Amino acid sequence: MSSVRVTILMAGHCTCPEHIAIQGGRWRNIHFPAMFALIEHPRCGPMLFDTGYSERFFSETRRFPNRLYRLATPVTLEEKQTAQAQLAARGIRPSDIERVFISHFHADHIAALGDFPRARYVYLPQAFEAVRSLAGWRALARAYLPGLLPSDFTERAAPVDMAAPRPLPPDYAPFATGFDLLGDESLLAVELPGHCTGQMGLLARREDGIIFFFVADAAWLMRSIAGNRLPHALANLIFSNPRLYRLTLAKLHRFHVSRPEVAIIPSHCAETLARYTG
Ligand SMILES: [Zn+2]
Known about the structure:
The protein is built from eleven helices and twelve strands. It is an alpha/beta fold and about 280 residues long. It has a single domain, classed as Ribonuclease Z/Hydroxyacylglutathione hydrolase-like (Metallo-beta-lactamase, Chain A, 4-Layer Sandwich). Strands 1, 2, 3, 4, 5, 6, 7, 8, 9, 10, 11 and 12 form a twelve-stranded mixed sheet that branches. The radius of gyration is 17 Å and the shape is globular. The protein starts with a strand and ends with a helix. The relative contact order is 0.16. The mean pLDDT is about 95. Bound molecules: zinc ion (ZN). The site of zinc ion has 4 residues, from loops.
């Protein structure tokens, strides 16, 4: 597995009651940061895993019915927190971004896709198939805001070839197969279904040898993975498949127990993100 530079960043946050995020959680609101990661590959250049929120989230949720999305999860985003602004602070222009790996098509993961004019969009095809024909209320019910996709999305789309899975080494058990995204084993996609169809996790080895496993929304908190603790049953209303969600969470739990040195990064776990962004 070749290595990459990994920088974990956040573009805004929303709030969520802790007892919804995890069974046994407290009756108080907690921050749900919207994580994105800058991945710099020696040959393929700078790439992103998800994008977090952007200004476009606010314009897309100005009117009903989409306004309900903003009311359900109140979002805070300062201008300097957008992916574009944080990359600029690192000397990276929007047109430098070669690829954006999309974990899934929920608004808090794709809101800035349109800010990167040259990027190719990489995702598991079934994730987009599950939402591409949805509009209005039906899209909103899946936390999908079609207006967040740039108009040339399909021309720049580079869905993962599902016909070419690759066995993972035995120490990745219970995850048995992945997809080699760049052809040099530096980035391996792993399907993590349940939260939504075709959710894509990403394995990356950082230059210092630490393996990162970006698991998106397969769990909202690292505590859920460590203790195999589900969210409140109400959360099942927004999951595409609660049974698969439980199976995926149980697999992540087993993996964490056998490989505690791997940095598992749930996209919205403030504690984990503070640890790796500090
Ligand atoms: Zn999600």
